[in-house]
## 1
Amino acid sequence: MPPPKDVVKIAIQMVGAIPQLIELQQTKPLASVLKDVCDTWSLPNAERYALQYADGRQTYITESNRRDIKNGSILRLTISPDQEAERLYIGIQSKNVDVKTDSLKKLASLSQDVTFAQEFISRNGLKQIYSIVEEGNDTGEMLAHTLKAFTELMEHDFVSWENLSTVFIKKIVSYVNMNAVDASIQQLSLSILENMVPTSRLLFEVVRKEVPLDRLLTYLQATNAQLQLKAMALLIALLLSATDAERREMMDYLREKNIRQFIHKNIIHSSEPLGDEMAHYLYVLQSVSLNLCEHRMKTSMDPYSQEQRDLLQSLRQTAFESESEVPAGTFSTERRRSLCAKEFRKLGFMNNSNPAEDLRRAPPGLLALDNMVYFSRNTPNAYSRFVLENSSREDKHECPFARSSIQLTLILCEILHIGEPCSETAQAFYPMFFGQDHFFEELFCICIQLVNKTWKEMRATQEDFDKVMQVVREQITRTLSLKPTSLELFKTRVNALNYSEILKLRQTERLHQEETLAVPVLELREKLKPELLELIRQQRLLHLCEGTLFRKISSRRRQDKLWYCRLSPNHKVLHYGDVEEGVQSPPIESLPEKIPVADMKMLLVGKECPHTKEKSSGKQNKDVLELAFSIVHDVEEYCLNFIAPTRYEFCLWTDGLNVLLGKEMTSERTQTDLDVLLSMEVKLRLLDLENISIPDEPPPVPKPPSNLNFCYDFSHAEQ
């Protein structure tokens, strides 16, 4: 008979003593449990002791977290957190360097525990840490332990970052700006500043003023991957906390200093593999840079702005330079206006008498005008060829440059998500973005020439405009999905993907769809489904057994802390625990926490998860909701909360957990995988029927014969 829910069987260790195996009554006060344990070992003053997990993070057991203790947990009897906090508080003030260093080292380790951190901070322990940093000149091991302890204590949010003194901040800044400092201290200092920046406007201004962007660029060129990561994290924190004007100023300065070259050479093409965290920061940097176009994209053209009108006129003058050189007095005002209108019509403006009207639509607004001007000034030959070639065609076959440019700009804004907020978890950046200055404008120059090429291949007329732009969108998205490493490679591939290739791809997809819609094929698919669904279930469980690395994300910032979760090979227990950066696949024995599958009650996703409800007061990000899921176990109050690194991992984990709970797999990935497997299986089964049309209805069964006399009677032969 299983034990009641409020009783767990555990082991308790103590150095130099035989471990105790007890049944912990969860309804019994923790003080009474400790008294019984101490009495067994004949230890006086039970109030001076506490229980903590023997493995993993060694968290102290309190009344608030005791329900997390599982059957089979191993605990250790140790000094209570208040006694330990008092001892270390005295130890870090010791005149003996060895005692002080050891105390700081232990403090850095124990500060991860919220109970200990509360006790230490309540003794004004942070003041002592401030003093060690502010007054000390040490830059070695002692300082590294001090900064580590400070980081862990501040992580619990008991104390506001705004309480830090100017002296302390400037000391941390000095470690970042100094060359002759250990790399571990520089990493911790960068991490502290990164945490500091988003908390208040004042701290942002202090860090921005004291830490030159040139210094961060120096770190990006370092060979130490962790230094690069922390420097990039601080740079991103500064950019996200800045106002639009400050962000533009910072990005302009970084562009002048060739930040893209540093990233392209030292990070993207480094010998070290690119980690998830760095991939996220590169995505954010790309997103922030592209979003600088948002203001122009959302601004309509002002027909009364002389500057904007001059830009518009420059397009006409560049294209029809020889025709525009006729002296002003040669024609009357009316004739000249008529000539301008004719030239604007040749340029492809819908409203040739007032072309500014075409640019009133926002988006793409003035961004389309900027792109056209950039194209005309930086590739004048290609621009003139585009315009003149189309102005000499028959009216119905000319490709309208201006109209195409406006629509293409809108398409590129949608594909590159310009104007959308940065995702907290996305890692999808384009390597070619960091290999090219003026990326958006250069991409436009390639794609507008692609529009003209596709227009000719399709022999399009004005009525086919939307169809052409639809094909161009498909050409761009299909090529971008291949992740080309440079714009030159993008140009080669997108031009190779001509209209005939797009037609072939569409035809293949259509034939595949038609083939799978035949009635006999649909019946075969239904018959194969159960077997293939079982195959998908096995794959999902296998993925859970391999495990996944998850990141902890707070409402304040994207944290560096990692934890790993995996399913036991017998599919009976989920093991999980915190791990260090760089650990790819920790053995199951190293994960101290566990949840029996039998105790799992339900799976929550998205807004239903408790950790997304906790953050609902702050700025909620849509992508976090799409990646969040929780396992409810034992009783409904206790959940294990996840935020998947990608949508793919989210689908595999939610499917796998639903399989363990005996429920249907509901993710979109299940349907995709099922379609792929069904398609492959059906094609294999129909190989012998290639080039034979499958009828919608089965052939009729012939009527039975009038008699069966043609059958041979074997019984007579035997006689």
## 2
Amino acid sequence: MFSWLGTDDRRRKDPEVFQTVSEGLKKLYKTKLLPLEEHYKFHEFHSPALEDADFDNKPMVLLVGQYSTGKTTFIRYLLEQDFPGMRIGPEPTTDSFIAVMQGDVEGIVPGNALVVDPKKPFRKLNAFGNAFLNRFVCAQLPNPVLESISVIDTPGILSGEKQRISRGYDFAAVLEWFAERVDRIILLFDAHKLDISDEFSEVIKALKNHEDKMRVVLNKADQIETQQLMRVYGALMWSLGKIVNTPEVIRVYIGSFWSHQLLIPDNRKLFEAEEQDLFRDIQSLPRNAALRKLNDLIKRARLAKVHAYIISSLKKEMPSMFGKDNKKKELVNNLGEIYARIEREHQISPGDFPNLRKMQDQLQSQDFSKFQPLKSKLLETVEDMLANDIAQLMVLVRQEESQRPTQMVKGGAFEGTLHGPFGHGYGEGAGEGIDDAEWVVARDKPMYDEIFYTLSPVDGKITGANAKKEMVRSKLPNTVLGKIWKLADIDKDGMLDDEEFALANHLIKVKLEGHELPNELPSHLLPPSKRKITE
């Protein structure tokens, strides 16, 4: 009797079974989250409904910055070729949003045609109207970099009198729309003009809740001396600290991202190291794309839940007949108290609530009588999705990552330093002497031999204990010295001969000079007498 109750309960608790992460995200959104969003008018307040293209598209990188900070040049540098519609100059040249994407032939797709293409993730941009769509294009071209990622170039953010002229569309709202859907947001600053205009400040605030995607590039850093660069970097961090309200420091990459000679080459090594770090970050995007989409869906589901509680609470407080207008004004003014009550009753984190002032402004134009009361079944479905289905998708994400070969962005500037003598760190640290005919350690071996013969060698070898006495003088931690020992003890007999001892000292010198140790000994560091052992 009542066995159907237990069956229904089990059906609700058993997570869905999916073949791929993309398919799972689409199905969960359409069947479990979208009904809640539609019931409580989520799309009118926060973000348009997601479509299949939002789940299937390649990772996207959004470039944001004031005019003449090098956004378009940065894309040109990555692709190592011009793209359709590209304009570069010291004045505000890029007056459009340009989605740079992979295509079989070069060409430009205008905005009005772009937002009706179901294969592109831009259909919902239709809501921003013709004033925006006339300033939105897609530049398509065949390029190996674009096989893995797409890049969004944006109009330069204005300063001074220019920012008083209206663009004809809500610039900050468009950027916020893109921020929700891209995988990385790169804010570019010019080392010569760090002033953050009112429009730029408004834009950065609109990107709030997406700090995890944000990276900062201090561009054109080759145009100033080292001492000035230090001051500029400090000033930039101070300015960002006033606008980006997070206790963590945003990662700032310093460099000069164009293909011309460095004007002041003093900090060349720093720029190379920073460029490699940024490239590694961008190259990891395809590998982490599924996880990012999953994370964004969870964030959206949490916001949709809170939104449902807010709308249903407002509906509950409204009178059925008279005094609706006055009650609406009162509820909007006291929205902060409603937030606090919902937070207490449902144990919701304050960080999950939408911006109070923005929500109050949006509620002014809404008809509260059309709001829906609380529907527990819709909320329970989303709770079940977060508790069970998302956990299964997390497992599937890891499985897909392990089954696929390492996904990385290739081509363009990413290939330029991959091989050959211009690779980052080539010929430095453990790589020193890689092209030399002679063993690089031999240069300092006479000095190391003097120490070696003071350590009481027996049959041409010193014990581990005696080697340790000398090696700990470097003051390196035991974990590092242990790694050096493993690399230097080539024949694995627990002792070091004169060549192995010289090698150990060479590796200590490499580490003390600030370089990383290799995981395996490079062939050029093998002592000449040991090269046959390893073959």
## 3
Amino acid sequence: MAAVTAGSGAGSGPAGSPEATGGSTGGGGWRRPHGPLQRYYGPSTAEAAEAAPDPTDINGPHFDPEVFMTKVRNECPLGQLLAREAALGQEIRALDSDMQTLLYENYNKFISATDTIRKMKVDFRHMEAEMDDLAANMAAISASSARVSAALQDRHRRGAQLAGVQALLRKLQALVEVPGRLRCWAGTEPARALRCHARARAVLRHYRHLPSFRAIEDESHAIMADLAQRLRTRLRLVARAARERVDRYLRALQTFFLGCLGDVRQALAAPRPPGKEGPGLPDLLATLAASVLGQLKAVLAYVQLFTARDVAFASLPYFKGEFCVTAVREGLVVAFVRWLCRTARGFADGPAERGAPAAPPALLLLLARLCLDYENSTISYILTLTDEQFPPQDSGPAVTPGPALCAEARAAAQRLLDHYVQVQGAAVAQMLRKSVETRDWLGTVEPRNVRAVMKRVVEDITAIDVQVGQLFEEGVRRAQSSDSSRRAFSVYSSSRAPGRYAPSYTPSAPMDTHLLSNIQKLFSERIDIFSPVEFNKVSVLTGIIKISLKTLLECVRLRTLGRFGLQQVQVDGHYLQLYLWRFASDERVVQGLLDEVAASAAHRCLDPVPMEHSVVELICERG
């Protein structure tokens, strides 16, 4: 069996052939083909196939002698087996010879190695003993380290507790010192005092159920209340200064408005060279309104510097709310608007100073239009602008509502327009009064033309119509009859007969003319002479005409007329009828007043013989 095994290691076959061994070295031994390149590139495909488990590979890790012998007996003939046995015997003898030679050559080395191994075993046992001692020491050290770590942790925990106690003591000490610090900083550093109180307030409130903390909190609150009062007092050296500046701006606005009014009066009174007209009323009104509004905007811009972001006290509600509402909105804007309305109304209500010129009617008309524009749009715009630049606080003081200011402006405009009608009506009435009072109505000659004063009245009314039309709308007129300008002007009513006014009339006549006149008044529409006028041209002219004709009526009632005086009144009345009806809102107003003038003249006439209507028309057309 040994021969078979040796022969199979060097003979042919899968495991012992020379091809499988890959050659021999110079010493005749077999060398496995392993190297760095094979380890780097890995085994080839054939090597990988050979590396599979093979129980017949005598040099492989999976060699099985039984399987190998069974295969050899089954595959190899007897002659080959014998040859393989002889070859294996030779190899065994050669290997034994080589082993003996190797043993002889390395005997001393084997002896030295054996001694060395023996010493190493002894040393290893010593090292094991030392390692056991070291392990025991390490265990002791670990136990000591655990005890030290526990001690350190306990010390750290106690240190943390001590630090907490110290921090709590510091906080308590700080809380105890809060009143003193507040009292010290309240006079010199109020901001620092406020920060200190803000930090301590929450803690004091949380522990206020304790008597000591409640005492500290009460004392701190008292100190802060006193500080707040002192700060409010100081904020009032500021609010008062701001209010004084606002009052100065208000006086500046008032002075500016009075200067603008002076310029307007000068422009209205300036003489006009022939062929050259000055600025009209619309231009003067636009200039005045724009100048005043622009000056008010400039003043608001100056006042807004008090509420700038870089001003420390500007953001405080205590100052900002009161300043924006009380000082700016009410004390400046509302006060100026009210003063403007009072000043404008003063031209109508206040008595003129002795020697001072009265306000020209054109100025009254212009101021009335200015106040009306303020009521319509300017006041709303000014208040909106003020509220945008100086927003009021929700819980601030009450403000003057816009409709209240608009009502004041409208009342001022109404009073000015009424006064304008009275002034212009009085001017026309003064001409009519003088023309009646200075004429001899008993000794006058037969009328041949219209008196010059009547022509002047129509011219003045026309000029007033042009003047009022520059600033106010036309207005609504009542539908006119088709023959308004050609209406017959009679000194008798429809119920009277001319024969009743014959020279033979005596007071004992059956029907008194005064009674007839009174009966006629009962059925005629009552005319209110001094009723408020509306804001339009027709209403203004109607008011002036009513005042003028009413004055003419009263003057005629106080005179005694002859025949020609009655006829002159007839001619003048018809002339006024031809031209004045177109200026009035209702022609019946003019007709009614002129009828009363004619009736009064007939009543006061000693010889009431009227002129033929055709002659009256001819004279008026020629005039």
## 4
Amino acid sequence: EDIQILKMNGDKIPVLNMYCGNQPVFICEKAAPKISEPNGHQMTETSNCTDDGDDDDADDASNELQTELGPEPLTVMKARQLLSFYTLSQNSNVSAVDNKPALHPLWMVIKGSARFNLFGSTVVENTTIESQSCVTVDFKWGHVERILETPPLSSTATLNIKVASGDMRSPLFEMYRELEFLQTLADGLRTGETEWMEPLESTSAVNLTKAFLEELRNTAKTLQDQAAKPAETTKSESETPIFNSILERGDLDFVEQLWVRMRKSVTSYQDIGDCLKLVTEALRYGDIKPWIHRDSSSSLSKLILQSYHQQIDHVSLTGVTPVHMLLEMGLDKMRKDYINYLIGNLLFITETRCYKLCIDIQLLATVYFSSGEELTTLNHLCYYLNTEVDLQEQVIRLRKLHHLLEIILTCSTFLGLPYDRLFLLTQSCLQHYKTYPYDEQHEFKLQIKPALIGHFYQKEQPALWGVEVSSGHGPREVRTSLQLSDRPVVDHVIFETDYPNETVNGDSEDPAFFSTMVCCSLVSIA
């Protein structure tokens, strides 16, 4: 009763004119105290020391005292109390004020933010399957109405993509194992020591090579059949059958087929030397006339070209030469594998001629999706396909290209992103790895529309949820932030929750949330 609240425009009050302009403001002040007369009329309280015998003097003193009292400022405690009442009155979760009209907001802007996990570690039957890959999405929006509200479709959404190669769930896992063998050979050349991988074939590398050469001697099939048959007969039970029709090529030439057999079976330098010796002798004596892709650049491919003219240079298969030759064979084969994934069964059109999958990396042709929409160009891929740099650098660039494809495939297979988003992601990754070193911990960013991934997050709980309340403008702006997380600040402390239906061990459908950050722009700590 001793408080009066006036609503007026800020421009009518000099001290608020510069700050609020003509915006409506509430002025809370301490009103002059009132007392009641017996007849029910209000009168202004004057003084409890008035003289009963001099009514006229008392009236004059009363008028003078009323003028002097006037409105007064509130105490700090009373101001805080009023602010609490005002804030509570705007809380839609309080049933007592549900039907009351909304008052003017106490702050100009309330921004929300949230993060959802889309891809990563999963829990199956209380067992966590760890994954080094992680795809999250960050939302930002305005006009927050309640705590932990789901981001609206009008939000801005950004994907945070961090993909680690070697995930067994990836369709590229078999290609990753092939790349690992390639890296083993490169490390052996660089350090002089090689840790051989467990062979995937029970038959020895030498026996596999002998059988392969014998098959070539005895067959009379066409070159196309020779390319298709090994793709059917060299599959092992350890290979992942899913997506094979998409990722496997049916046009493997002789060198690529030999690489497939050797990389699954060699366990020593001696194996490599013996296998290549069998091949070079068969070429020298004209026992085989294998076909190869016209853009093959390995040393063995050059020997095969020479065999067409019955002129083969002598190659000393001693020292690290056999490993060097096998590494070249693998680099050649895997470059074509990655390009094959990018283009599928499509055509390269240059001038008036078509080249199907037999790719000349110098052609500045355009790579297309099956829909006919441009994804990238061979010109953009030349950095990754360049054979003029040393072998170690070629392996590094091939690892970058593999990581790029892991990222694209994760977003297309598991998230179902449309072409235009995959196109932007491809260009971003290609440009990044031309400048920066190989890094699986790097997070790639991609702007998307929330509607594209609505089914991933709209019925899920966020991993992080935050709100920022700001008031004022310019140097007077004050920002207060609160962040909630589904994980406590530290893992080694057990936190108790006040909500009986919420637990911190993941057994409940409604997980507990913890305040992990509270900060204010006026304070230098959070």
